[in-house]
């Protein structure tokens, strides 16, 4: 071509692979702009975690159980007992240990559907420290291809930008599945938002009943002298003020009431249908527990006897809720650390040390151990263990030539000792 000489000095850009839908997602979300979460994490946390006992206990129960699981680090050939990454995970930063770090990470993941982990150090080396960042302060910045180009962390109007360069991210973003959001995850507390509102409203209703001696105080009927059943505005305000100051609240329980002429007291009570709020509260509590995946029996909610006993409920809790969460989070962290250090490692929970799964573990080990048609490496692979190290051949030594048999030699006869004569001796002085 005529214009080929113009292209000879141009730099050849490497071909990159990307999803065909990435530019479409970027066009909708906006290139270079922050993609905010559609839900207010701060409000949901205040209402569903700090202001609701069922949501608080469910998050704490899952986060503490998941953080208490022991973790193992291995590659395809061996399981490490000592490794630089294990030291960082055991003591991620001066203020937190392994359990505290992962408890905070799991709690943020459950409350917002997103978990953010920061690595302190240079790319290509083992990180010096690991820190959990609050999900409500983090915002993702998508690029032209739909993938994140940066993360912005905002605190009191100040922002810090974590740039993602060449696919190297100092932030490990772990998100739950969200059917209508491309950048953020869906938290269980968002799905349980309606049940949380019902449960909180029932609690406020119970508090109001306690403030009024747990029953409606009744009705005051006014009958005028002329048969007029209406009160003037001043009379109504004075009566209402006296009722609020002298006859309502826990401190005024049991105080007698003095009524003037024309006033009559009619006590009232609850019908059985009015007392159904307690069952409504328990039903809302079960819905909250269901959204988080915690058996209601473990939260002390009555009326749900799905499991035969507490042990079965605890086993189902670990198998259906805790383990999937831990495997998802540790797999993402292990892949992220592998890319950072350049060493292919895998981080996962050690299921052999979970007391709640001891019965299932014993049955699995016995079943696999009795399979004679499987090799030892196949059995170890089914149990999630690395293969055995191959036996190294012994070094071959060079064969030395055979030595000739030792022949005994007869002792030679001793010669008689001859004394020197005086003639043969040298003369002194010569």
TrEMBL record:
InterPro entries: Phage/GTA_portal (IPR006944), Portal_HK97 (IPR006427). It comes from the Bacteria. Residues 393-430 have a biased composition (Acidic residues). Residues 383-430 are annotated as: Disordered. This is Phage portal protein. It comes from Celeribacter ethanolicus. The lineage of its organism: Bacteria, Pseudomonadati, Pseudomonadota, Alphaproteobacteria, Rhodobacterales.
């Amino acid at each position: 071509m005529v214009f080929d000489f113009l292209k000879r000095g141009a730099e050849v850009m490497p071909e990159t692979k990307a999803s065909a839908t990435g530019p479409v997602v970027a066009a909708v979300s906006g290139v270079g702009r922050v993609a905010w979460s559609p839900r207010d994490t701060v409000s949901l946390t205040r209402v569903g975690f700090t202001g609701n006992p069922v949501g608080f206990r469910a998050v704490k129960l899952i986060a503490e159980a998941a953080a208490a699981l022991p973790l193992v680090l291995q590659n395809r050939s061996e399981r490490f007992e000592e490794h630089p990454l294990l030291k960082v995970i055991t003591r991620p930063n001066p203020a937190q240990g392994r359990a505290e770090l992962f408890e905070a990470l799991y709690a943020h993941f459950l409350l917002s559907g997103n978990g953010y982990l920061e690595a302190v150090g240079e790319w290509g080396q083992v990180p010096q420290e690991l820190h959990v960042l609050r999900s409500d302060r983090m915002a993702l910045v998508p690029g032209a291809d739909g993938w994140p180009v940066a993360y912005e962390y905002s605190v009191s109007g100040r922002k810090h930008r974590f740039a993602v360069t060449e696919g190297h991210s100092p932030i490990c973003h772990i998100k739950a599945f969200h059917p209508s959001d491309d950048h953020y995850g869906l938290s269980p507390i968002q799905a349980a938002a309606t049940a949380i509102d019902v449960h909180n409203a029932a609690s406020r209703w119970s508090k109001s009943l306690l403030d009024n001696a747990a029953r409606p105080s009744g009705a005051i009927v006014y009958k005028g002298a002329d048969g007029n059943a209406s009160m003037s505005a001043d009379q109504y305000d004075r009566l209402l003020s006296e009722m609020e100051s002298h006859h309502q609240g826990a401190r005024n329980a049991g105080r007698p009431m003095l009524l003037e002429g024309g006033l009559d007291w009619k006590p009232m009570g609850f019908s059985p249908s009015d007392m159904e709020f307690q069952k409504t509260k328990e039903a809302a509590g079960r819905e909250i527990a269901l959204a988080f995946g915690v058996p209601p029996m473990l939260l002390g909610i009555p009326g749900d006897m799905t499991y035969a006993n507490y042990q079965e409920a605890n086993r189902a809790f670990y198998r259906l809720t805790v383990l999937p969460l831990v495997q998802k989070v540790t797999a993402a962290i292990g892949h992220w650390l592998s890319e950072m250090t350049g060493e292919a490692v895998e981080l996962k929970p050690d299921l052999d040390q979970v007391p709640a799964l001891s019965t299932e573990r014993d049955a699995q080990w016995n079943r696999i151990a009795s399979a004679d048609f499987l090799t030892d490496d196949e059995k170890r692979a089914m149990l999630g263990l690395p293969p055995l190290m191959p036996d190294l051949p012994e070094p071959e030594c060079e064969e030395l030539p055979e030595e000739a048999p030792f022949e005994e030699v007869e002792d030679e006869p001793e010669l008689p000792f001859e004394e020197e004569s005086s003639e043969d001796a040298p003369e002194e002085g010569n």
